[in-house]
Amino acid sequence: MTTLATTLGRVTLKNPLIAGSAEHLIEVDGIRRALKSGVGAVVAKSVNESEAARDQLQRAEYLLLDEHWNPVNWGPDAPASAFVACRSGLTPQPFDQWLEQTAQMDREARAYESYAVASVILADLDATVRMAKEIEQAGVRILELNIGTPYASQARGAVSTELDPNNVLAIVAKVRDAIALPIWVKITGQSERVPDLAAAAFAAGGDAVVMAGRSLGLIPDIETLEPMLGTTLGVGGFWNLPLTCQWLALSRAKVGPGKPLIATNGAQTGLDIARMMLAGASAVEMSSPVMIRGAQTLADALAQFQTYLERKNLDPADLIGVAADRRRNFPAMPLKTGNWKNYVAT
Ligand SMILES: Cc1cc2nc3c(=O)[nH]c(=O)nc-3n(C[C@H](O)[C@H](O)[C@H](O)COP(=O)(O)O)c2cc1C
């Protein structure tokens, strides 16, 4: 049987699929369902000290849209093209309660040879450092530090969308200084400098970089003439996979193959895990497809990934960065004179 283990610096996961943070991982039942599905790790719904961020969750609203921008029903029958457009907030639990729950989940995760990862979204840096220390003291084994949410411009200081590599360096260095835990730094995709942000996170002592957070988007409603859900929304979905893969490939080229990258944004299946690993990821997070369709999505993706590896007679490590490293420049492509004519509809 193919071994599915993958190594992210100091951490080895039993397989590269990580249940990424969102609302379905607020409560213990959701986290337990994700652990039971067999994933290598589960990232619990994020916390921070900001009351405004908690308040945002109670104002949150979600749409599942198809390729015609029409709403479709939430659930396992949603089409593969369906994607989430939403405004979200952070966990409603007070920090102490969230911490107790996350530590308990990470203890339970050991029985599954998995991890429940604590996730903090930066608002105030001193508060983040205090929370990081408490997370470590509580015995949680991994911290994901999200400095790349889509919402900073909309949510007035409740969360951050860090766009400047110098800030990334300063933020991660300060948290690194405070704790010894592995830190996975989650960065934005709303920048042309994603590889620089990743390099800064590693230079400051981050153990892995998660890329790349969802984007802001505006979807006009042609009936009401209003923006859907009244505002700018966080958007991502299957269509983001090529962008995530491009950022992985460029970041791998920048930081080198020894620095573990974790993919987020656009994976829905086991074959997508393979695609993102071929682009340079050592592990892959899956969030909204699980919130839409349930934890079975994770189990199905793992089974499909394993079948793929067996068919190709490959280990997960054989995939990492292969397609990224085989990229060539356009001028290196073979001459195909007049080929374009085959692609023009009449
Ligand atoms: C409704 C919703 C809530 C989310 N909440 C969080 C969160 O609390 N913390 C976090 O780091 N990311 C959060 N995310 C981002 C996801 O973890 C993930 O990075 C993003 O959805 C792209 O991956 P996907 O295509 O697998 O959904 C959220 C995403 C959605 C759709």
Short structural summary:
This protein has 12 helices and 14 strands.
**CATH fold type:** TIM Barrel
Unique bound compounds:
flavin mononucleotide
Mind telling me the C-alpha Rg? 20 Å
Query: What name goes with the CATH superfamily?
Result: Aldolase class I
CATH class: Alpha Beta
Number of contiguous helices: 12
Largest sheet: 8 strands, parallel, barrel
Structure characterization notes:
This protein has 346 residues and is α/β, with parallel strands linked by helices. It has one domain (6-343): Alpha-Beta Barrel (TIM Barrel). The chain has twelve helices and 14 strands. It has helices spanning 28-36, 51-58, 95-110, 125-137, 165-178, 194-203, 241-255, 270-278, 288-293, 296-312, 316-319, 322-325; strands at residues 6-8, 11-13, 17-19, 41-43, 61-65, 83-87, 116-121, 143-146, 183-188, 208-213, 215-217, 233-235, 261-263, 281-286. The chain has an eight-stranded parallel barrel with strand order 3-4-7-8-9-10-13-14, surrounded by seven helices. A four-stranded antiparallel beta sheet has the order 5-6-12-11. Strands 1-2 form a two-stranded antiparallel ribbon. Helix 4 runs parallel beside helix 5 (165-178) and helix 6 crosses helix 7. The longest helix has 17 residues, at 296-312. The radius of gyration is 20 Å and the shape is globular. Flavin mononucleotide is lined by residues 20-23, 45-46, 84, 86, 88, 90, 119, 121, 146, 186, 213-214, 236, 264-267, 285-289, 291.
